[in-house]
Design a protein that fits this description.
Two copies of one chain form a homodimer. By secondary structure, chain A is of the alpha/beta class. Chain A has two domains: about 30-115, Rossmann fold (3-Layer(aba) Sandwich); about 140-260, NAD(P)-binding Rossmann-like Domain (Rossmann fold, 3-Layer(aba) Sandwich), CATH 3.40.50.720. Helix content of chain A is about 40%, strand content about 15%. In chain A, the strands form three sheets. Chain A has a six-stranded parallel sheet with strand order 1-11-8-7-5-6. In chain A, strands 3-2-4 form a three-stranded parallel sheet, sandwiched between helices. The first copy, chain A, starts with a strand and ends with a helix. The model of chain A has no long low-confidence stretch (mean pLDDT about 95). The interface between A and B is large, with 36 and 36 residues.
Chain lengths: ~290, ~290
């Protein structure tokens, strides 16, 4: 027996098709509009933003790219974000991270209006998730992991889930989503003692560490669902946090890298854009 | 060997003394003012509010009790809370729960200004806690549990903590605080399978279930710190979630009921009131 390989590309394509249909439904008057702030010259960020723009235009979402100079002050970016938050023709606002060093990312994230916060990172939206009453959007990468498990019928309720990593972007919201889905959830991180044995308790193991191929078969309970959120560039190409050759014979499900979680992030971003447009227009009609 | 019994009454008294000193420091111009909304005729709520008022006045905190009628609409309470949130002479706003059935508690909690949210339940404040960057106040009961462990030198970083219960008021913020304190944290709840064996992994076990004496020695790893948040009224008096006679010989530390976590809740509420007053006045001076 070898793990079912979860095909993130196929699921992401399905979601994009669903989103394109929703865009047509919601866009009777005007297509949903996603504003993206890209500040600085980080080459990886430039590629991510280009890919987001490409998918948006394929799905009929208006993509409004703002490129403030790398020398911008925190006040400049906060003012820009406030302007986009106040613009009635903008449905969704995304600030591409990382920002240049002189800019405090928390101040910028807090400046996005919660009802346009397409990444779901604003404290009010994370708070609703933490209270078990999430709003229309939740952070795209962990939401993508949940969606992959749902579409592959991975049982979640009552199962033990272990999340390795406690970042604001992945680990923490992932744990909250799994709690809300009735899993018994453990959060591990750099201070965890004997990580492999904690991970072997998991029916669902989420690796969001950022260390190439760290998770081998010694971390995996036979039959477990292993979701690999890591993306590292190595000499041999893009590698996840999971050692696929070691884990595939043991796991019940496995997301490959590339082609697993990665494609889901942009698909969920597009879905979030439409969800915000839908929520705003419904409100505006009342 | 028998568990160290954590004396919540003593620690709460120490905190009240510290708070009274802070009140004098912060109150040069005017004492901190805590507004409390008590709606309805719940007898337990009336007792809690009376106790809060008594401690507040002992510590020099102004206590401003509002008693809207039990027939109030949700709009009535939201309007009242907005008024208190806008009043420059109010430092802290507390809405006593539960509210009468016709009132949506989430709408009311969302109406408290985050900078006056003395219970720390507003989604923005829970979100900051969930993101690992808590504001000046966090929910009183779990914050009280953390304070008890700190004052009894219970090791937290790198230890395994298990929280039983995922309420908004205790379980969820408790788990977030323990993650932020570098514990490896597991959240259990009604859907957890084989709860005793999961609990036996814990160096720190937090019982916040509300079922009298459910946690016996079979749930406890020898030497663990057991924090009992439960308060149930039984024929034989007030009882926690922990079966003390069974657990005391096994645990390393144990909070008794009564006299453990209970007294901490009001003490932390008073500390939160002063923290908000301090934060607001510092801002007002800038």
């Amino acid at each position: 027996m070898s793990a079912v390989i979860i095909d993130g590309r196929r699921v992401a394509a399905d979601i994009r098709t669903e989103v394109a249909q929703s865009v047509r439904d919601v866009g009777e008057l005007a297509a949903p509009r996603l504003a993206v702030v890209l500040c600085g010259e980080d080459p990886a960020s430039a590629i991510y933003v280009r890919n987001k723009g490409r998918v948006a235009s394929e799905l009929g979402i208006r993509f409004d790219l703002r490129r403030p100079p790398a020398t911008s002050t925190c006040e400049d970016i906060v003012t820009l974000v406030h302007g986009l938050s106040d613009d009635p023709d903008v449905d969704a606002v995304l600030v591409q991270l990382p920002l240049p060093r002189q800019i405090d990312p928390e101040r910028v994230i807090d400046a996005v209006a919660p009802e346009k916060d397409v990444d779901g990172f604003h404290p009010t939206n994370i708070g609703r998730l933490a209270e078990g009453r999430p709003g229309p959007v939740t952070p795209g990468t962990p939401a993508g992991c949940m969606e992959l498990m749902r579409r592959y019928d991975v049982p979640i309720s009552g199962r033990r889930a272990v999340v390795i990593g406690r970042s604001t972007i992945v680990g923490r919201p992932m744990a909250l989503m799994l709690i809300n889905a009735d899993a018994t959830v453990t959060v591990c991180h750099s201070k965890t003692v004997d990580l492999p044995s904690v991970c072997r308790e998991a029916d669902i193991l989420i690796a969001a560490i950022g260390r190439p191929a760290m998770v081998d078969a010694s971390y995996v309970k036979p039959g477990a669902c292993v979701i690999d959120v890591g993306i590292s560039s190595t000499d041999t190409g893009v590698t996840g946090d999971v050692d696929r050759a070691s884990v595939e014979p043991v796991a019940g499900w496995l997301t490959p890298v590339p082609g697993g979680v990665g494609p889901m992030t942009i698909a969920m971003l597009m879905r979030n854009t439409v969800a915000l447009a839908r929520a705003r227009r419904r409100l505006a009609r009342v």
